[in-house]
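Q: Convert this sequence to structure tokens.
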Amino acid sequence: MDAPWLFVLSPPCALRKAVVATSACGRLRRARPPRRSPLHVLPRLRCQSDGVDSRTSVSVDPDRRLKVEAHELFMPALSSTMSEGKIVQWLKEVGDPIRPGEPVMVVESDKADMDVEAFEEGYLAQVLVESGGTAPVGATVGLVAKRKEDIEAVRSCGLECVVDGSGSRHDGTTAYPDNMPKRTMTTAAPEGETVVAASPAPSPPSTTPQSPTPVAPFAPSGTPPTKPPGVMEVFMPALSSTMTEGKIVQWLREVGEHVTKGAPVMIVESDKADMDVESFEEGYLAYVATPNGGMQAVGEAVGYLAATKADIPAVQAWAQAVHEGGGATVKAPAAAEQAAPPPPSPPSPPEPRMPETAPPPPSSSGRIIASPYAKKLARERGLDLHGVKGSGPNGRIIAEDVEREARRRAVEQAAAPPTRSIATPEAKKLAKARGVALDNVRGTGPYGRITGDDVRRALGEPMEHEEPEKKSEKVSEAAPAPARAKTRAESSAPTGSVPMTGMQKAVMNNMNASLSVPVFRVSYRIVTDALDALHARLKPKGMSVSALLAKAVGLTLKKHPIMNARFEPPASIFYPERINVAVAVALPDGGLITPVLRDAADTDVHELNRRWKSLVRAALEKKLKPEEYQSGTFAISNMGMFGVSAFDAILPSGTGAIMAVAASLPEVVVQPNGFTGVSRVMQVTVTSDHRHIYGAQVAAFLRDLADLLQNRVEELLY
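A:
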């Protein structure tokens, strides 16, 4: 491949060299999803001067490029609908060191403000888009030098110093390939540099009518087949700033279905949560390159859309040749009937049947679009609306749909052999009081047992944590659990090498990054008799220990703001305005996520408890929004429910401290009256960043926290 060229401004517009002229013009290169063919980075800068659109290219001495090495900072895609972003603030100054995973700027997308982390190590050499400026997704907004002494050289040679391969965006976009014809002309150039001007030279339109001809099969030498016109890619988006690959949980459209712009086409599991991915184009889903359950790197194509229904066979044949290999033949749609199919030719797919009015399927993300009366009927009949197809406007579920579904299920139940519903006593009591048929409720408890939360879910009400069942209550062997409720214990354990999920990979990367932070640990034993008594008093109202601990920690952090602060390189301490307590939640698939209770110190404990239950439910269903798990300023990891006596927690990035909470266990201790007695004691261990937090500060924090929980626990209610 030829050495890449950098398009810069020709005089009189170019007041500065190379990349510096980028900011002067205020124009950035466009970006689009990557193609599988090799690309080289081609920034395109345009500047109007006296009505002339001039483009020149500057070639940098290859020896000079070898002496310095730089990487680009891109505008990431922080949501699947984001097309451009605004840089709210640069968190680094020119010359500051940057490490992988370290926030470098705050970007305002179409959803929220988020920290954007660096993917490469080095030093910030140049800012191309200042704070307050906007740039399209994939545009270069800054340059990072590999070494500090290379900063000036990078500023001088700009994008020519970028290492090979860095044109591949971490958010799934690349620069346009240089596929324009060029013509050479002479122009002024700085001393010591060769300047060749290139401008597009479009060929004049042909006057001879051309009939469409079939595209010949690509040669055995590996020449790629010709891409049919109108093909649109569905690519793997970057759903978070740290996501490098995603897993397709489910395709929401079948091959042949019509896809409108903005309609969800698939559900993607990122390193944070499951999210619906919307289509940026309108067309017909012609080919699925990555099926359900498949993994794909960010920016890679996972499917293809055809512009019209008639183009589907041609797109399918082309996509099969690209992804599956072989001597597939790609035909032009207009000449498909005239061309003789060369052997071996893939069989033409059947004509997809499209209903005249196909309502969109129910959203798998948990959002139900239904009329209020339909929801009321569903509650009365114990129907789960997730499986009901709506016939109203835009797929809205109406009362007739609920009645139809109720009749259908009644017929199925009458024809099905009688079965016995296994339910907990609380579930039976709640179902009887609310008139819910347990046969219509799906059990999520052990061996498919129906719990109280299952009944509440069927009623559309918030779930509450049930009391553990008594050991004496055993499931009768005469009542086998439904096959769909099969538990892990019943399934065979995996063997051999199993790829990590996106969530597990994110945890792995965070753990590796934590090794570079100097930490220390301080433990403290807290008598929890007063806390246990308060919890027992509030438990009938659904109060959780996590909400009480978060409130206690929030109040104590007010007195010790250094424990709520974080270190910022090279030598500063950031004090957040709010106290946001992140509490770790273990996910069923082995992942870990930290929902955040915002403003824990100033929020009523009952409101914190309601928020916590909602956050846990969303976390288990992988529906947390980024702002619900990325804004923590202090973290808590509670494993007391497992009965552990003590443990250490790993400090997460972006925080200064995390507190590990062990079980509250009975011990013989000296009572306040001087006699010995049995009290429950809980050990907590705080892991802190030793760059800005010191041992005496942690000890003082734990002392005040213990005093609050032991002697002033009623303050949690104020």
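The radius of gyration is 31 Å.
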